[in-house]
Amino acid sequence: MRTFGNTVFAVMTVCLLAPSAFAQTGATSSSPASLIVITSGIAFAIAVFGCAYAQGKATAAACEGLARNPAAAAAIRLALILGLVFIESLSLYMFAVLYLKL
Fold this sequence. Notes:
By secondary structure, this protein is mainly α. It has a domain at 32-102: F1FO ATP Synthase. The protein is built from three helices and no strands.
């Protein structure tokens, strides 16, 4: 799993630094407003990726818990649904902040 995280970090670094390496010098047409839009989009994408990853891990852990102890299905289901609601609310709050920022 550590190599996956290193790979994702390397790809994100290359994607974020490559445009500046090939940028032309001289008059630029990028305004601070356009930079806000770009950075907000990147931040939202990272937040959504984190929420999706967390939801997958939570669901996998709940399935494993149900397989190990079927008698605790009601408690595991309640904890899973509550956890998924909190994880999804993080994504929705990020979307609201993004919308209010623009």
